[in-house]
Amino acid sequence: MIIRRSNERGYADHGWLRSFHTFSFANYVDRNHMGFRALRVINEDRVTGGHGFGAHSHRDMEIISYVLEGEMEHKDNMGNGEVMRPGDVQRMSAGTGVLHSEFNHSKENGLHFLQIWIEPKQLGIKPSYEQKAFPIAERQGQWRLVASQEGREGSVSVNQDVNLYAGLFSEGDQADVPTSRHAWLHVVNGEMEVNGETLSAGDAAAFTPDESISLTGKQAGEVLLFDLA
Questions:
Q1: Boundaries of each Quercetin 2,3-dioxygenase C-terminal cupin domain copy (predicted)?
Q2: Which residues of 85-117 are buried (b: 16+ CB within 10 A; e: fewer)?
Q3: Fewer CB within 10 A of the terminal residue: the chain, N end or C end?
Q4: Largest Cα–Cα distance in the chain?
Q5: Predicted confidence (pLDDT) per residue in 94-126, tens digit
């Protein structure tokens, strides 16, 4: 197990946007943390009311947005216009090219979300978009598959051999980790004991195939698990 602590991440403060970068991103360059397998970006973003990311383009990247607090408004040149709330998962396959914007839907309240980039398995596909809600009851005390290559079990589909799970764990909850492949475990909030180590909000850990992973809740919180080829 290799631990990546929250305070080791890159950080950018643009006034309206405060962002922590788990891996190299924009002006934050760290040759030791360029990504993990196909996982390329985990940005923890906080956006003030009435602000956001204006129209910008992407290509050949799988982009997943996961709202933690507040509401995020999405628009793109494929004709999609949605508002995301906590528990919603949005997947955008940029493929040959897509133009989109992301704004805090509220003028007063803050927006807190994770932006995740995954390198695609196939390049040059037709751009597409998908958004689904995953209620608390489906994540409480258990792992809920929220993204997968085939869109299994009602998850959003991703153009890569990856399974993304979300789980909400209370103090004392014990969770078997559903992977025997490479794994990246990201603590969204709360505090978890993972293989005897305490991981807090923003901390993460990387695992090699067949490495046993034991997770116990220490302080109620949420965890994302990436199961990667």
A1: 145-228
A2: ebbbbbbbbbbeebebebbbbbeeeebbbbbbb
A3: C
A4: 48
A5: 999 999 999 999 999 999 999 999 999 999 999
